[in-house]
Amino acid sequence: MRILSLAALPFAAAAVAQEPVRAARSSRLATIAKASPNESVVCMPPYQRSFAAGPDGSLFVLIARNRWPDAERKQAPERKLELWRTDDGCLNWRQAATVPARAGGDGVVVAADRGKRLHLCWTGTDDQPWAGVCYQEFDPTAGMFVGSPVVLAPGKGEEMQYNVYDLDRSAAGALVATIGNHRQNEAPWTCGWSTGLIWRKPGATTWEPIAQVNVDSYGIWGEVQVDGALAHVTYRTKGWDPIIAIRSFDLAAGGFTTDTDVPVTAPPAGGQQVSNGSLTCVDRTGNVWVLYATGQDGPGQGKLMIAFARRGATTVWQHLEVGDDPPIQGGNYNYAHFTISHGPGNQVIVFWSKIAEEFATLYQRTFDDGQAIGEAKIVHRGVANEFQQVTGHRSLSFLTGMQVVVRSATAAAPDGEIKVFGMLPAKTVWVGP
Q1: How far apart are CA 36 and CA 417, in angstroms?
Q2: Neighbouring residues of 1: CB distance < 8 A, sequence distance ≥ 6
Q3: What burial letters (b/e) apply to 99-131, b meaning 16+ CB within 10 Å?
Q4: Of the candidates 136, 191, 135, 125, which has an alpha carbon nearest to the alpha carbon of residue 158?
Q5: Taking Cα atoms as reference points, which of 123, 118, 177, 110 lies closest to residue 393?
Q6: Is 21 a residue whose pLDDT tops 80?
Q7: What's the 3-state SS for 42-110?
Q8: DSSP helix/strand/coil, 394
Q9: Whole-number Å distance between alpha carbons of 188 and 257
Q10: Partner residues linked to 197 by β-bridges
Q11: pLDDT tens-digit readout, 85-117
Q12: DSSP per position, 184-225
């Protein structure tokens, strides 16, 4: 048998030498952006959808950048929302656009038409002094915004301003946004510190009137998850006996399915009560998961919990403990160090760091069909404040290896870095419209 050496195969050897080197996929962090001098950068809070899939496997992430005109930072900073893009699975990022209309620093984004269009809502002032909620489309292929911003809820005074909470899109093409108001209110709002729902029918160019979600005296952090024709909104409510509640809006009928706030959690007992944050994730069979934090008036009994309800049965909930974090307190606290993300198959995955550990370690626990799959595990050990804020992947339209956007504020970079965590380089596949 004749044996050929590589020297006898010059063309084959050249072909091997020129083959691109592919990065090995592994569970790790990758950096999107860093703060420059006289700047700080932050990611969006957990209840805001801040990343979306574009065409051909690209991914987009919204971040906020504060820029001070003076080194002492005595003057108010200029705040911009930036849209960043990766085309290689999160290894390298570039700024794709700056959100227009004097954005106020927080926003949400969802994709449509398999990533050919991005829909953005953000808190901004446009041409007025008071904050309101704006909307505009973005064309990922052209790399530019389409048309002009549309003001969905204009601010009308210091005590009558509005901010965006969340945005989602139905498979049929309806857009559903949740917004929050300030202390004062006017019709259709019945009270301040409430959550409102505003939506646009498939194929329409105008938005339906705002409908207040919470029935009780307030509704905090009202984020939304659309499943079929139902838009599920969860929020903290019920005065001095706070609970996490849910109301569902029927996009086909154009109204809420109940006349009351439906409890997800029980009223406070034994001093234990919920904090402001709740996060909803509908799994791929339509079951509803709600992540929330609970604690007492002082530190010592804090923990993360997750509630589960079968599709069509969101009056019956079972509750599972995710993990403890003793410094968490119940009440009017806005924690941002835990989130929920879709996993493989029908799984949902909770990611969190701990106040007790100075946000140095990222934990993960997986749930499926109403039960925990194994114990909590550490997926990344970092340094203090490396996982200060996290937000997860809650879209039913695409699968991706990028699971969490992270805001770090370590001693080495105290003004912030924005990172992503997941199985990188991330594969991204569209599974919906």
Answers
A1: 10
A2: none
A3: bbbbbbbbbbbbbbebbebbbbbbbbbbeeebb
A4: 125
A5: 110
A6: no
A7: EECCCCCCCEEECHHHCEEEEEEEEECCCCCCCCCCEEEEEEEEECCCCCCCEEEEECCCCEEEEEEEE
A8: coil
A9: 18
A10: 178, 211
A11: 999 999 999 999 999 766 667 999 999 999 999
A12: ---TT--SSS-EEEEEE-TT-SSPPPPEE---SS--EEEEEE
Q: Which of 103 and 218 is assigned the larger pLDDT? A: 218
Token pair of 13, please?
């050897």
Give the gyration radius of the chain's Cα atoms.
22
DSSP secondary structure of 10-46: HHHHHHHHHSPPPPPPEEEEEEEEEPPTTEEEEE--T
Both tokens of residue 186? 């006017």
Domains of the chain with CATH codes? 38-347+363-375 (2.130.10)
Convert the pLDDT of each residue in 368-416 to its tens digit: 999 999 999 999 999 999 999 999 999 999 999 999 999 999 999 999 9
pLDDT digits 0-9 by tens, 120-169: 999 987 667 889 999 999 999 999 999 999 999 999 888 899 999 999 99
Q: Which amino acid is at 349?
A: I
